[in-house]
Write a structure and sequence with these properties.
With 259 residues, the chain is mainly α. The protein folds into two domains: 202 residues, no CATH class; 34 residues, no CATH class. 69% of the residues lie in helices and 0% in strands. It has nine helices and no strands. Helix 3 packs antiparallel against helix 4 and helix 5 runs antiparallel to helix 6. The protein is elongated. This is DUF998 domain-containing protein. Keywords: Membrane, Transmembrane, Transmembrane helix.
Length: 259
């Protein structure tokens, strides 16, 4: 019952709406908090420290987690999609943790909550990138539309590149002065992964009507059933005339013998 619920068309529409809410939330945060958050040098998670990001940031993360949860219960028509659905479910869990724990501030530093937020958000990015690679590698054999397959490949390549750049800029900020512009690849990564989720929703399959399994009938029983359904053969006109002539000859002979 739950599997059919996730694979329904209504669930797909909810997943689309959840991604739209996520994108809209981050867009509003960028527009309304540009005076306190530098989009070039500051991570996206910094929006959660001031209003309206205090509300919109966890809402956006939870919306994306909802979309991943729905995807984890849908079918992609791939040969080995069980592991992919597991990764999507794990991504949803990571996003919930990233929403529940806020990043640190210059005053507080990397608290336990800030570290949970950092590594769960990073894990969600990694898991979605792996999902993109696994799906793109199997979509051709599954007959997925070329548009969805190519979009997934592009999302996988861009996500891998931007995540690697974000990691270097975060932990080795002196390389190419990456610490001064680390916010750019992180925001590109966020947009790419949101597009990836949209592509996966488009490529997922709604529930189809169940096809009854064929009933196997033994050969002898099948032959007997066919024989019983076969119409009786009609006698030909020649055979009927011969039979009548024989009957006419037989009746006088019987009359003579009786007399």
């Amino acid at each position: 019952m739950n599997r059919e619920l996730f694979q329904s068309r209504a669930a797909g529409l909810v997943a689309f709406a959840a991604v739209a809410v996520c994108i809209a939330g981050f867009a509003v945060m960028h527009l309304t908090q540009s005076d306190v958050v530098n989009p070039v040098a500051t991570p996206v998670s910094s929006y959660a420290l001031t209003f309206p990001g205090i509300v919109l940031f966890p809402l956006s993360c939870l919306s994306l987690a909802l979309a991943c949860t729905i995807l984890a219960g849908r079918s992609f028509g791939l040969a080995r999609e069980g592991f992919i659905r597991f990764l999507l479910g794990a991504t949803a869990v990571m996003l919930v943790f990233a929403a529940a724990f806020r990043t640190g501030t210059p005053e507080t530093g990397l608290t336990w909550g800030a570290q949970i937020h950092r590594y769960t958000a990073g894990a969600a990015f990694v898991l979605l990138t792996v999902v993109a690679v696994l799906c793109a590698a199997q979509m051709r054999a599954a007959g997925t539309p070329d548009v969805v397959r190519r979009a997934t490949w592009w999302a996988a390549a861009l996500a891998s590149l931007t995540f690697a750049t974000t990691t270097v800029n975060t932990f080795l900020p002196r390389i190419a002065d990456g610490g001064d512009w680390r916010g750019i690849p992180q925001r590109v990564l966020l947009v790419v992964l949101a597009g990836l989720v949209l592509a996966l929703i488009s490529g997922s399959q709604p529930t189809a009507a169940p096809v009854p399994a064929p009933v196997r009938v033994p050969a002898r029983a099948a032959m007997a059933m066919a024989a019983s359904r076969r119409p009786a053969r009609m006698a030909s006109p020649v055979a009927s005339s011969v039979a009548l002539s024989r009957e006419s000859i037989r009746r006088p002979a019987l009359a003579v013998s009786e007399s």
